[in-house]
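ARCHIVE CARD
SHELF: 3
SLOT: left
DATA:
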Amino acid sequence: MKISVIIPYFNRKQHLLLTLEQLLKQRPLQGDFEILVIDDGSLISIEEKNLSSKIRWFRTAHQGAASARNIGISEAKGDIYVFIDCDILVGPDFIDNHIDFHKNNPNTVAVGLRYNLLENGLSREDSRKKILDRYGFSCVSFLKHPWFMSYTCHVSIAATKDKQERFDPFFVSWGLEDVEWAYRLYKRSFNFKLIQGALAWHQYHDRNMTHEKFIGWQKNLDYLVDKHTELQFLKVFIDVFDPQKNADYLQSYDVIEGFYL
């Protein structure tokens, strides 16, 4: 089997180079892999042609991560698509773990967790892990809305001949394009399951929600619930992402999951 690792990139050269360095240390025993880097209109192109023959570089005008990932899907040659962000570090068995998963879990989205690296060198647990622990679940498939866990910082899916796994290009600002993509897969009867052993770490950088970023996220939310009117309940997260309110994420998730702890 062959894996296509699809990475949208925008203006984070040092993060990307570390991500690629870790990916190139893979020791896959069951297949091969390629890396597709889609430069989403960065100010300076960083196409490093001599870095590795495994890397294929693409550059486009700035259209957002959703469109960049779609270019990756169109160009990918693998049997499995692994989506990660340009600031994700992975372990040496990352590729093999994804191959193992899809051999044993057909028609299933592999939901990968990641640890957030902090400025002091320590790491913080993924908020999705906290949710699963909170409810006593060991698998996202037990949740009412498992698609909501499918963040493209680390997720994979087996390629289909029709390549219908595309993202909606109308999501240009940050946020929710992956959730909407996963929801459409859910409606196509895809299952969702945690992938064990495929370790990933989110490199440290300032991820604080600014007012400008929040406005873009809110526009994406409005577009999502207009497109899928049955998802109006996602508006409960507005106060979570509003930097002036900072409502509790876990408590908001309790509302959509039907838990009141």
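SLOT: right
DATA:
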Amino acid sequence: MAIDPRLVQALHLRTVRHAALTDELAAHVAFQTSTLEALFDGSFDGDLTVGELRRHGDLGLGTFDALDGEMIVVDGEVWRAHADGSVVRAGDDERTPFAVVTSFAADVTLALAEPLDQEALLRAIGDAAGGIDATYAIRFDGALGLVRARSVPRQQMPYPTLVEAAASQCEFTLGPAEGTLVGFAFPSWAGGVELPGFHLHAITADRRRGGHVLEAQVGPGTLQLAVLTDLHMELPPGVELPDGAPESTRAQALAQIEGGGR
């Protein structure tokens, strides 16, 4: 396996198939369906429902079957951001090919008194968490001065790769508005399993606009971080732990889906 042993040691990685899945709501545990590598390869159909996902966490992010929009999970509610940035509540019977959630319990709470640009925000998050290679969930509530975001329209079968699908992503802006950022920071050595570094989605307080964050200016507001110690993964049929896809492939996909900014 190409899984970095540091990931297994740091997050107590555990995998399970759908048939053996049990409900679990535990602080400091990240629950994930499928792997980022499977998504890279075009595995856009999931066997996990939104209802099942909500029984494993109340904060998180992901996508939907056929890569149809961005998923934002906040306060136990699951929202879909369409390609134009509009947001609708997702039904419990809808399915996801990739998502990460946690039962959020903050270990660090930090008041941001002034607006911060993207670089300053990520630096503040890293400083509060004690380092970029820590693993934690992120929540910010407050002013969204200007957020450059994106979403992806529904893909048609036969599905393209994620790199190919990223060519159709739509960019838009959110704010100024009150709202929430949710997301995760995974270590640089989590590639293939998860998105290394920061991964943030945004949603406005009126639940009308949202998407995957490419660049953000936020604040004032409240930043909360929750340390993650365990990663529990549901592996759909045909999906295994990564076996070593070329780093160039991952880098190309990340560059395209991030739209040149993070």
